[in-house]
Amino acid sequence: MKIASIKTFVVEIPFHDGGNPKIITPMTWHTLENVLVRVEDELGNVGWGEAFGYFVADSVRAMIDRLIAPLAVGQTITDIAAWNLDTQLRLHIFGRYGVTMFGLSGVDMALWDLQAKREELPLHHLLGGGTRSSIPAYASLVRYGEGSIAPKVCERALREGFKHIKLHENVVGEVAECRRAIGRDIPLATDVNCSWAIDATREWLPKLAEIDLAWLEEPIFPPEDFQALASLRGHGVPISAGENWCTAVQFEEALRQGAVDSIQPSVTKVGGVSECMRIANLAAQYDTLVLPHSPYFGPGLLATLHLAAAQPGVPLVEYHYVETDGWLYDIKGLLHDGLMHVPTAAGLGLEMNMSVFEQFRRS
Asked: How many Å apart are CA 207 and CA 192, to the nearest integer?
């Protein structure tokens, strides 16, 4: 396929979660910044992708426009994965991680959507098939930091049909309160976003084991300290990480060192669909569970569903449990009783709501 144009957009949609302003990052988090990538071929077919952009949308967009798009526009791309690796090589001087890989992820995803549309196939068929029509989703809550809020939100998620819950609470007592609220039968995990020291984590592991935690996500900083992560395994609490790793190179090293019980590649950050498939092959080689990171409502979530459908061993996908002021896609139409249905139309499988796109598009 010959690439005629690549255009980028930032669509910023407010969200609401029933809590106070979020302080996981240096700024309050109250909008979803979607860096959308539109790729058009010589026949007028269009593919859409999403690059990670929360708080860094303008930098990611500039990376695509100035450095990545010129490596694709006017080119005939017959092997997207090979183009991806060649682009990584040509851009390595600008950093192998961060905004470089975020931008590449969005373009790679759009190319896969475009290719699947050209072949009139749903993306998961292009990735090797997949027989599952739906995949269980877990409700991924924001961090509330107040003991009274998170348990109530957990209970609401259960009433809405979710059967798995992930918190972002980083105080053991608050995690325990949520466990008491939902009982022992519901799988419960927590992501502490690298906020614990390793000695404190070791001290708290017995209590977390008593809580029967499904997994502990990104307990320590830096997230790529694979040796330290490996030392936390085997104490009754599965360890998971990977949303802040980029490229299959980091994942292979983590797997080689036995750093985690499950890996969490993020298709909008790691290098796109191509890199996720390389990581899937590594996970199979090392017999390690894949729990994709996907707190998105745009092409990133749709691509995650197709990737999961092509990997029978993926047990769950992440659903960002907030309410937004608009929906780029009919995501809620895919969600039924805790299951996310995999779209079956060509490409990513859903049409973007362009009125929402225009309403929240940022100039």
From this structure: 15
Q: Which pLDDT value is given to residue 28? A: 74
The separation between CA 103 and the C-alpha centre of its own chain, rounded to angstroms, equals 14
Rounded to an integer, what distance in angstroms lies between the CA atom of residue 347 and that of residue 349?
5
CATH topology of domain 125-350: TIM Barrel (3.20.20)
Closest CA to 96 of 225, 251, 219: 251
Which CATH code of 2.60.40.10, 3.20.20.150, 3.40.50.300, 3.30.390.10 fits the domain covering 2-121?
3.30.390.10
Sign of CA dihedral 175, 179, 182, 188: positive
Contact in structure between 110 and 49 (CB atoms under 8 Å):
yes
Where exactly are the structural domains of the chain? 2-121, 125-350
Which residue, 30, 321, 294, is CA-closest to 157? 321
pLDDT digits (tens, 9 = 90+) for 28-61: 788 999 999 999 999 999 999 999 999 999 999 9
pTM of the model: 0.97
Give the strand pairing for 339-341 and 335-336. antiparallel
Amino acid identity, position 317? V
Torsion of CA 84, 86, 89, 93, to 10 degrees: -70
CA nearest to 106, candidates 63, 42, 74: 63
Q: Which element (helix H / strand E) includes 318? A: strand 317-320
Query: Could you tell me the two tokens for 346?
Result: 């060509």
Long-range contact list for 193-197, CB < 8 A, 24+ apart? 193/24, 193/143, 193/168, 193/218, 194/218, 194/219, 194/220, 194/221, 194/222, 194/223, 194/244, 195/170, 195/221, 196/170, 196/220
DSSP letter (8 states) at residue 98? T
